Amino acid sequence: MLLRGVALYLLKRAAVLLLTVVVAVYVTILVANMGGYVDEIVKGELLFSISTSVYQNPAYRTLNETALRNLVNQLYELELKKRGFDQPFFIRGFNYLRDALTLDLGRSLFISSDSGSRSVRIIILERLPNTVLLFTTTQLLLFFIGLFGGLYLSRRFGSRIERSVSLLAPLSALPGWFYGLFLILIFASVLRLLPYGGMVDIPPPTDRFAYALSVLKHMILPVMSWLLAYSFFAIYTRRTFFLIFSSEDFVEVAKAKGLPEDLVRRRYILRPTLPPIVTDFSLTLIASWLGAIVTETIFNWPGIGRLFYEAAALFDTPVIVGLVVIYSYLLAVTVFVLEIVYAILDPRIRTGVV
Amino acid sequence: MSSRTREYLRALASYKSAVVGIAVIMALVAISIYTVIAIPYDEAVRLWRAGEQHWLDAPKNAFPSWYSFVLQKRLPETIIRDTTKPGPGVYKVDVPAGELIRILRIDIDFRFDYDDFPSEINIFYSVRFNRSAPQVTMTWTKPDGTTVQLRKFTPSSDGAYYVSIDRDLTSREVERIVAKLGARPNYELSPTMSLFAVEDRSILESDKVQVLKGNYRLSVEGLLFDPQSDFDVKLVVYGKVYGWAGTDHLRRDIGIALLWGTPIALSFGLIAAVAVALIQMSVGAVSAWFGGAVDNAIQRVTEIFIVLPFLPTLIMVQTLYKVDIWTLLLVIIALLSFGPGVKNYRALFLQLKESQYIEAAKSYGAGSARIVALHLIPRVMPTMIPSIVFSVADFVFLEAALAILGIGDPRTPTWGKVIQDSFYGGALFKGLYYWTLEPAFLLLITSLSFALVGFALDKIFNPRLREV
Fold it and tell me: Domain B2-51+253-465, what fold?
């Protein structure tokens, strides 16, 4: 009976999440096309490329002006039909939606991958490892620094180190890229120790080990800028979080019962704080997947954030839609998995109290 | 209410960090008020957008004047002498020599006793004549008596003689040094340096060359062939410092952008922070109070907005419409109206909804609108204030980030635009640190002071935090 209730609940959540993804992707398609504006750009480019190729083709040199123009129009119409531009945008929007949702990401309009491919899948897959390498690493570091730093400080409440970290927390009002500017100034410009930006030396080392070393060297400044920007705040919020939880009545009772300190911490403090921590962890991991547009720009890092920026600035709809659809799928799946995990971790939800 | 406000203020004053933050914010507000009155917005935009034409007499990439104190070295200021504006050291005479012809003689004397070379030398001239253009010879005299003929020419229209990049003069100068010292300089000796250098063996090496201090003279001798004919020059010896903020690659005074960036950053940050928080809170209140289908709909819309990528959407809107900074502000507020904050406020209101004073309000028959507006929202206000103050910094940085991505308002001078110019102008490569650091410093103190105040407010309004 209970299990059926949980299953029904999860099913309902899954349906809602799927609906959210569908609508979000469709809205993205609308926004990314600027309500059909991008079509005009694409059509213009198409007409231009067809007419130049016709006018420059020596095979057509014998034709007169009207015949040439007719030929251009004919080819243009054919190409439009081939690409589905003869249908109104409203209908094509749904075709895009179907393709996007089935992860048939198609071909980009303007951007091509380093290997020269126009396939959105290849373009994204080429950039993804760079972003994961940089930002997922950074987020993981930040998460664990925050977690262990917070735990440590919450136990040493009132100590000098605790107070100084609390004092430094406002430093996180400045974003990571801003610290990046200063780090570039100090370590690249003045000290000339580390590179200004990029991901690997130019030309890239051929030796695999040297290559990895070079990438590591390029990672130092961006990772450092984010750690500088966000770790104090991460520690501070976790500390507050643990402190609030450790002043709960049930913790006091456990302590009053004379339970060992260690047991109290594990069973009475960590256990109830686990669900929000797990949520935080998984959501930041997913968010790190999108990279960071400004940080990647400052450090010239060829990641997803940069790709997102380029695609948005060029109105490369397929790339934008591709990125959003993958992101929203990942987000939806994560949220869904979290609901299940909650059901396991939180006995109140498991027994249907809440 | 007012007594409670006073109580909060007193509590705030007990946090030293908050007092510092408030003092900085006050100073920034004062700067903003001064700027808005002293330099009208249109004037600022005109100065900033005028480009190089308006700033011909300003040095390129000049350091701020206070660099001289920091480096303990007198860096040259810009020296301008104009024969149309007579003053000390500017002499212009013409003597008739025959029926029509006159001999023109211009002497421009100036003192140069700085510790560094100028950055550039330009001579702008204007000429008037009926039939035949005057013939002009320009000569440079150094304090030690060395004379250098700069250029002999027949100017047929107004123009400029760019002394520093005159290739012919450059090679003549090098040959002159070679003839004098019997050795060739080991670097590319430009006229800017050779015209101001001590001419002994130190000039041969780029790191030893010294400035010759003393009185310099630019002489112009001309033959005017018409009675109406005239010739005027303006000598500009560009310095290496300018104003209190320095100049950028387009010779513009960075100070203008720094000043105008202040009111823009403050109003942008404040308006965005307050508007977004109020809208998100109202949406959250409505969602929590009405529940059911309304709640469901609002929550679904919120989730969609969470999935939509914020910055890329903003980039697309900005690339397409090139909106100005205030329209951009509206777009940002619209995009964030259903942001993640809605969820937090909803959770807060869901708790409040069950509280007894709401029950009481319901029992005496208060309507939904009345309860939401008069009982729910005021109750949440205090807890909102810290987060509003926090988010001011976020929005100030958002504007800067957009500028750095090159998609900010192209017209308005802002801190972010200066950082972008400096970043792409290679300020960090070339060691022009002031260019990046000045706007960065302003961003830093602005956001830090808001953060300090926010942290203190957080502790005051959330007593639970005060204990821990």
Answer: MetI-like fold (1.10.3720)
